[in-house]
């Protein structure tokens, strides 16, 4: 009996220790959540744009399948950047991952202190930081994706919104860059608005919230490289389409759009602005017909013609000679063709 009493005592002490550890763990988690958020918003059903009827979707598929069946893809075995022997499998895998890392397009309904305009301001600031430190294009896209996915799951105060942005850029840079800026440099980016400890703690909370899914996201640039093959990687078209796809980062309406479709919309709009057509080669490499891309084209034109949009940093960035003054051309074209674009869409509807 004495042995049994000792055994029971040991078990009681063990459970007491475990309970204490659980309480400490729970309290620590509560404190971590209080640092950035107060509660989790109600999860909403993810919707992928554009929402089309079954009949129209089937028609798109038939058109694409017909083109795919007879289109001859000239594979360049010496183009190491496209790894032709693996390309088809790679893009199929990327398609499977797309919806898995898309944020909720209505997540702002669950936020109490921030709104879409504040998100646009944050993304515009991230664009400045990204350009200032000469980071890779994918770093920016991953950072914005992390921000949106995090805000889809956590309620964030206005005071902590910039912390979410800088932490997302910190994570994206560590993942994508060869020589990522140090955490001290990210503290400097915020003009010491947040400490090193806050950014590191935010990184831990953010990665746990997103289940460490960072590498799953493939930016529109990955798809754009494939689509660019249709016009033999024309520099002017590609530069203009890069600007147009970055514009979508500032427009929350594109949160429901897959990266592959964002790339296609950007390329289609660039082609239209430069007087080109959306021929079979573009349909083949993008996977989307012209009719499929027109709603996104309309959204882009509307965004470009918003009052004061030319003051956004993305416009200033692409107004330089380095980027062929793409933003100046695009905004001027959009203003000239706004009514024409809206009328075309109304007729089709």
TrEMBL record:
Taxonomy, superkingdom: Eukaryota
Claim: Cell cycle is one of the keywords in the record: yes
Annotated ranges, domain Cyclin-like: 124-208, 222-302
Region of interest (Disordered), ranges: 1-44
PROSITE patterns found in the cross-reference section: CYCLINS
Pfam family, one: Cyclin_N
Keywords linked to the UniProt accession: Cell cycle, Cell division, Cyclin
Domain called Cyclin C-terminal: residue spans: 218-332
Ranges annotated as biased composition (Acidic residues): 15-40
Annotated signal peptide: none
Matches recorded under InterPro entries: Cyclin (IPR039361), Cyclin-like_dom (IPR013763), Cyclin-like_sf (IPR036915), Cyclin_A/B-like (IPR046965), Cyclin_C-dom (IPR004367), Cyclin_N (IPR006671), Cyclins_cyclin-box (IPR048258)
One Gene Ontology biological process: cell division
Molecular function terms, GO-annotated: cyclin-dependent protein serine/threonine kinase regulator activity
Family: Belongs to the cyclin family. Cyclin AB subfamily.
Name this polypeptide is given: Uncharacterized protein
Species for this entry: Lentinus brumalis
